[in-house]
Fold each of these.
Amino acid sequence: MGVMVAGTVGAQPTRLPLASTDRLVPHNTTVEAVRFGGRNAVRVAVAPEVTARPEVRAGMIEPETYVRIADLAFANGVIEVEVASAPAKDAPAGARGFAGLAFRLAHDRESTTAPRYDAFYLRPTNGRSDDQERRNHAAQYISHPDWTWSRLRRETPSRYEAYVDLVPDRWTRLRIDVRGAKARLFVNGAEEPTLIVNDLKTGPGAAGGVALWIGPGTVAYFRKLVVTPM
């Protein structure tokens, strides 16, 4: 099968209901088809063998954890999905149910180099927290391997994070609009973006894969992925 490139003139949208694991390639994760909230979806969690690693349990490293969509490359356009997530039962205290979408993903599974990608994700347990600072960190942009959430927060406080109303394990619609070096995150059909990034760290001409992304201590459910090229 050839690679379907989202972001080329004349290309058609790629629609995946995510009712099965077809075309889903886990990376440090497990993925299975399930029913959640009365809907068909896929469940994504950190692989047990990854969670069991001493350096992961101690919080010394955060391994890359995502599910790549096979045979799909993306440069510019719109990515949409529905996601519901929450911390796993055995998650560390700092877990927030981190879940979202990675795009422009470049990763050779045979290589030892870290994957490169941009991503938007949510922290659903922050959405209605009584702590205003936590609320302000409900939505996040990152660009790995260099621009982690901690570096962005340290060097550019508040620029790549925003508040949005969220509830754990409730279906939430995400839409990411990517144009060159700019990307906007829309949540639950809002007309205005929750978060605007004017300087995507992968650069204006980058391209790569699309992935269902989760963070440490998360169990997430995804459904109805649509990738529309520009």
Amino acid sequence: MILVAPALAQAVLFSKPSQFAGKVLVVEDGGYRILRFHDQGHDSEQSRCEVKRPTYLVHEYTRLQLLGLTFLEKPPERILVIGLGGASLTKALHGLYPMARVDSVEIDPVVVEAARKFFFYREGPRVRTFVQDARQYVRQTRERYDIVFLDAFDGLDVPEVLRTQQFYRDVASLLCSEGSVVVANLHRNSDTYASDRNTLASVFGQTCAFAGVGNVLLVNRLRPGSCDILEAAARLAPEYDLVRYARMRDDSDWDRTAPLVTGS
């Protein structure tokens, strides 16, 4: 996520201690609502919502995640988002595919409370929230998904238990078919970036990378496949100019000898 400096002019709408994030804050600033974690003296921005357009994706990395949809052979019917935050991605996906079921898994009940109260997050038969450890959810659920988005952060990093080889295998077991997609959001400057790339590659047969500012979006499939993502991007969510993002393919190298994160 994004490390930020405190701003005195912002109005604090919500402040509540969290066993997972130190303190969860919601502030309003110039027509935006911002979800922040305050932990160990640092503020990190987790989500940002434009009040007048609550389903609009403000941050670049959230728009990059939509590229995962262009790899699907048909529109998704079942979508899983791991990590709710301010529900920006979940709301956008529901807006794009109102007949699909969008499930979100979030370990922190304080985050879910903030999303419901301040970020226009509304659940229903096709939008569900599971307040649960993602590891438990993926191991216990009988649901199957066309696409899974991995976007859980405990501040600036992905929790180690959610970036292990075993966790990725468990996520892969939820996919409807070999053409289904797993989208992973990583920080390029993280000390674990190379290990995360290698760990994902050890589970999935195909990984395509797209680079944003500080973030790398990885689209993973169990088997290699081909698709015209530029054509698909031109049709999907034209307000974001996804063709521009689709051209941000990242072919830069990384340390392929970095150790796998095995986990349990």
Amino acid sequence: MSNKTAYTYTVLRYVHDIATGEFLNVGVALLAPERHYVSALCRTTYGRLREVFPSLDGESFRAAMRHVTHEFERFQKELAEELPLKQTSNGIMGYAHAVLGADDSSLQWSPMGSGLCNDPWLTLEQLYERFVMANEPRSPAHRRHDEDVWKRFSLELQQRQVLRHFAKKTIAVDDDQIEFKHAWKNGVWHCLAPVSFDLASADSIREKAHKWLGQLTSVSKASEDFKLYFLVGEPALPELRPAFESAISILGKSTVEQEVVPESEAGALSERLAAEVHAHEKSAGTG
């Protein structure tokens, strides 16, 4: 039995001069309606564009990319909560043109493409790498941030309509504290902590793990009970795999109750948390 689902996608192009028609790809948007998934990935930097188009207004470009990203985040929330939607009959183009209309501006959508996939999020990343980043010089700096890892997990929670139950929570002792942006209480606080280990070197991976170990040790005697879920992003470079495994071992030295959850298990964790949230609501008479 196949788990493949249909999707449509479109590539966002930056056309510097309408007369010449020269363009560079700057983003990709994808819709997989059966999975209640819609999202976009856009460039956050403009160095390569300025090399090709020296008169580019970098800050205006960056603001436009933020606008596109934020609008698709809003669409994803609507789709996950099954609220009234915009022009879904046209596939991804209905969403794309709701953000940026089909006109003669410098940002234009390509003709729609389609396909079948098992994982819409992974497919979006692959399309972004293929169409936007294929010729990009790789920086030795961070590849992905914690926020990038969180996107994968948050989409899974949104699709199960439980993300709204998670809110900020500060775990504190007399002389220290940690704020978690996503926490839910069911007897104990369940705190979600996205952590990207997709870093530039083995030393930076281990350093990040030691930093988390120190922070958890500092608040381990907090009066409120809590369980921590490390939502981890693995390094893209195979040679950094041993450092990643060392980092996981370092995290496990904390006395705080915890789980380490890789991105590949985002769906399974979200399903489990959703079941716990719904069971809690039912027992409390609020479901």
Amino acid sequence: MRYTCEDGKMTLFFEGRIDTESASAVQRELDDLFREHTPDSVVIDAQKLDYISSAGLRVILRLLKRSSNVSMINASADVYDILEMTGFTELMHVEKAYRVFDVTGCEIIGEGANGKVYRVGDDLIIKVYKDADSLEEIKRERELSRTAFILGIPTAIPFDVVKVGDTYGSVFELLNARSFAELLRGDPSKLEYVAQKTVELAKMLHAAKAPDHLPRQSDAARGWLLEARGELDDAHFEKLSQLIEAISETDTMLHGDLHIKNIMLHGDEALLIDMDTLCKGHPIYELAFLYNAYEGFGICDKGVFKRFLGIDADTAAMLLHRILALYLDTDDESRIAEVKEKASVIGLLRVLRRTLRVSGKDSPEGWKLINACRERICRSVDHLETLTF
């Protein structure tokens, strides 16, 4: 054992094995250290700790009784498992030592607001988060994935967390899995299959009762409206506010980003990924997100679909039409157009708010998109009496 002590922080570097044979010697060293020092905090660096037995755990337990601020960093998977199994992760903060991955040159098979999904070899995919301080976000998404899985929703659950550059990633084992975007790019005739599977997943989600802790999408919609208030005249703002408030509150589970890059074909099974967007609310919100993926984000730039999804605008439009027809179980074009327009109001409100945040009015492209969203929203709000179906 080595140590440093500076500015009230003592760092202990454990190496090798702390077992029945070595634990008493480690305890004597710690006793000597604490006769010389009274640190405010103690950090155990376990990078070179290969194993810890029950005798070693008793050493840490005595350390916890000496100091109320003890933590461990760089714990190997084996050491972490021992600490978790014995309850020590509840007694002190423990950080795992993360494997390091380099995704340079790896294919991007998915992308969302919070990160990108890379294929690393034939059997692994890694979702790399944009935020360097993303460990809590990763933990939240893992819990959301487990929630959906337990409720019978086919989803991939991450089995490891790794370091990727300055940020972190979640690792999934999906042998020979392909995203629906890859499937459709390789064979455009699969459009009907992709639409059917998308609707099957949507209806499976919407049949599940969302747990209490999921956020309500209606709260987010109200927030979008408030941020976009300056772009709407008073009459349209009030009417849109009334329409959103009139959407019934339901506990329907929603994915929140159900596009072809977030659905993986694993063998014959379609699996959802990117579960950090799970929420609850009326299904019109899910249809609004689908509208954005296949039309809304490209109302001023049709090239968006090719750049983001790998499909052209015509294919995206056909896919949206088939998804709506299958979801609504109708071939009535007027009915499909009606629901699509309602979804577009919510979807374009989100696009408007996003544009204001990201590029605002500082670019000609931003101005063009803001104006297009405003015009379409106001035109629909003028005659719609409800946004539900």
